[in-house]
Amino acid sequence: MSKASVEEIKLQSDGLRGVIGEVVGDAGLTHVEEDQAILMKFHGTYQQDDRDKRAALTKEKKEKAWSFMVRSKMPGGRISAEQWLIHDQLCRLSEGSLRLTNRQGIQLHGVLKGNLKEVIAGICRSGLTTMGACGDVVRNTMGPAAPVKSAVHGDAQALTEEISQRFLWRSQAYADIWLDGEKLSPEWLAAPEVDPAVREKTASGEEDPIYGKAYLPRKFKMAVAIEPVNDTDVYSQDVGFVPHVVDGVVAGYTILVGGGFGMSHGQLSTRPFLAQPLAYVPRAHVVDATEAIVTVQRDHGNRTERKNARMKYTVQTMGLEAFRAAVQDRLPTVRLEEPKPVFFDSVEDSLGWYEQGDGRWYCAVHVSMGRVTDRDGGPQYLSAFNEIAAELGLPFVITPNTNVVVAEVLPEQRAMVDAILAKHGVPHADGMTRTRRVAHACVALPTCGLSLSESERALPGVLDEVDGVLRELGLEDDPVLIRMTGCPNGCGRPYNADFGFVGRAPNKYAMFVGGSIAGDRLAGLEQKTVLLADIPGAIRGFLEAYKGERTSGETFSAWFGRTRPVGPAPDPEQFHVELAARAEKLAGEKVAAEG
Ligand code: SRM
Ligand code: SF4
């Protein structure tokens, strides 16, 4: 019997229910079949195995060391002290750390199947959810991390929450499986924003009002960014939102569409794209306009080839104008206006202490690679954040650069926060090079099933050497953005960095150079393969040239743009030729299979 496709699995899933309840409840099973694992992604969990142990277990003819990764999501990265403490407790049922994600969520790795229900239910009862943290639906909506008390920051955060609510999938399966049918309390069911008709439909278990029975062709990502801070990397998103303020209030948003970073090495029909401006939309209509965009992708996205199913390919295939017309058709009472110009200068977080604007303060704390754990002889991140949450009750914001903002700090609490961080050895960002402050690596080994090389475990060592080069050249305060991933899927957003290292095989990386610290330019493939040990040397050559040729105040990104023809991946024409060839090949294979 041929394996069911993801599209078939979704269609036959009975609102994403499948037999998840049964297999999760079966204590005799250490893992689940692939079709159920696919459905479980929509519920926020991935089946994985410990790849450090895989080879030895295979040799001994033993089964893999199965476990689950659980991802919780929170619009704009907002998490209360109580919710943080619940995650801290739940991570005792995992391998013992919290991995902050670069979409402002939290992952727990190594959760055994028998503990899955307790972990997911615990997250839900804290008022957050794992629903839609993964799967072919709208993922966690990102928002500016700085908890500044201004009209524009307030509105940006409100928008992330509205979007989150609007695009949660609606089947009762989630509550039945993880909460024993308990009424799913998280705000969305009671939210005034949700149309009562939608609520009724959901309650009766009918087809999902936005996603239908087949959900989206692929994952779907959105983010809000406030100029000039592009911390949410707005050009890498399926949909990006940039607010425009008139007379002190947000009048509307420029909406960008069609960004996305996944690709496959050497397959020219796959490639990263930056989002392009689509339209300006008055504030009152932004969420409806977003629904129109999502449903255009639902109806026009590629459902035969998952490698080309993201909305970036739909936008490229239809062309931006036709895409805009299709969105406009679904908005009879709203006119899509010309997008307004937008400008960003950096994807960095501002680390350290800042005033919120209401007499309180916030402190953005650097967390190396987003891994919140107590390191032997190193920073005790887990204990530090636990103590701040437990003793001071302060809420946190997870940043898109996987750092933690401690928010709402009273002036008299500042010294206590500093003392707790110091007590647990959490280093102050002041002493770090600007490169280290912003560098990020995806998770990769040992948990990620798709990784071809190390990433999170490799980048800190690379940075130790690069730091030396930067200090030697006097560039420690210059923003040079380095990102790494263990495979070409691009989770660490390497393709718009100054330097992106993309895993090809153990110890081997493709080297991309020439993105931008503002996140608004794609890097070109500079070297097909560079060994891990050779990365600092490969970077050094560029840094020396930059130091020699830069004009006063010029960033590395600006210097590169001025002096080098940036090769933004393969030529767009070639991309369309390859895309058509791939579609033809697939159609041929289908005819052959049917014949
Ligand atoms: Fe990702 C798949 C981790 C952000 C593109 N990503 C995965 C999986 C789930 C592997 C899998 O499918 O089996 C990884 C889990 C590893 C593990 O063990 O934890 C994984 N992705 C991550 C995280 C944790 C990386 C991080 O360093 O923080 C991020 C979780 C964000 C979240 O909270 O939701 C994460 N992934 C991204 C981003 C960046 C972003 O979203 O801003 C991208 C590139 C942008 C984009 O989507 O275009 C990204 N992840 C992918 C892809 C390629 C998608 C594509 O269009 O081809 C995959 C593979 C897939 O979907 O087939 C993937
Ligand atoms: Fe895994 Fe690849 Fe994503 Fe890294 S980029 S987390 S290796 S899927």
Question: How would you portray this structure in words?
Answer:
The structure is a single chain. The protein has 595 residues and is α+β, with helices and mostly antiparallel strands. Among the domains are: 352-431, Sulfite Reductase Hemoprotein,Domain 2 (Sulfite Reductase Hemoprotein, domain 2), CATH 3.90.480.10; 435-563, Sulfite Reductase Hemoprotein, domain 1, CATH 3.30.413. The protein has helices spanning 6-11, 20-25, 34-42, 51-59, 81-90, 113-125, 151-166, 173-178, 196-203, 286-300, 311-318, 320-329, 381-392, 414-423, 434-438, 459-472, 535-549, 556-563, 572-594, and strands spanning 45-49, 66-72, 78-79, 98-100, 106-111, 222-224, 239-246, 249-257, 276-282, 352-355, 361-365, 371-372, 396-398, 404-409, 440-441, 482-485, 499-505, 508-513, 524-531. It has a five-stranded antiparallel β-sheet with strand order 1-2-5-4-12. A five-stranded antiparallel β-sheet has the order 3-13-14-11-10. A five-stranded mixed β-sheet has the order 15-16-17-18-19. Helix 10 crosses helix 12 and helix 11 (311-318) packs across helix 12 (320-329). The chain is globular. The model is unreliable at 185-199 (pLDDT under 50). Bound molecules: siroheme and iron/sulfur cluster (SF4).
Give the overall shape, derived from the CA principal axes.
globular
Overall helicity: 25-40%
For the secondary structure, the number of strands is 19
Q: Can you tell me the CATH superfamily of the domain at 435-563?
A: Sulfite Reductase Hemoprotein, domain 1
CATH architecture of the domain at 435-563: 2-Layer Sandwich
- The assembly state of the depicted protein chains is single chain
